[in-house]
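Re: beginner question about structure tokens

> Can someone show what the tokenized structure looks like for a real chain? I only ever see the sequence side.

Sure, here's an example I had lying around. Input first:
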Amino acid sequence: MSTPDNHESQEARSGIGFDSHPLAEGRKLVLGGVTIPHDKGLSGHSDGDVLVHAIMDALLGAANLGDKGIHFPSRDPIYKVISSLILLEQVGILVAQDGWRLSNVDATILAQNPKLSPFTTDMRNNMVASLSVNPGRVSVKVTTTDYLGFVGREEGIAAIAVVSLVSVDSKSSG
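And the corresponding structure tokens:
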């Protein structure tokens, strides 16, 4: 759909991201950049932060910039145990350089245990800082799966995120 030449409009896009990792002994549990007291942590090449990973993929998808594996390949040793918040900051820069501004993030963590609601404000604040946005643009929620599936059996944790971007100028990306 095109717009008349004399009428400029902001383009909007949405993206969705999902990530899950198994819980493992000997790892810290890091979600949204917050270290959560727990006897297991998430296995992964970086810090295994499924919340931040889901948001990164949602941002990259909305901007049509690929996925986190393209930008931060797990085979590259530079990303071994790196804080995912550092990678999120880099994704935010890539998205902005491509002409997009974050409208909002809505993310949900799926975990049976530990209980995460006491940590969501700190998680949100970490992501707000990494993305340099107003706190009202980022929402973090938590839920369980009522003991169903790998999350319910406490074998892993997952996260899903939806983001909306708006164009910074009146470009019409294709």
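Each token stands for a local structural state, so reading them left to right follows the chain. Residues 1-7 have pLDDT under 50 and may be disordered.
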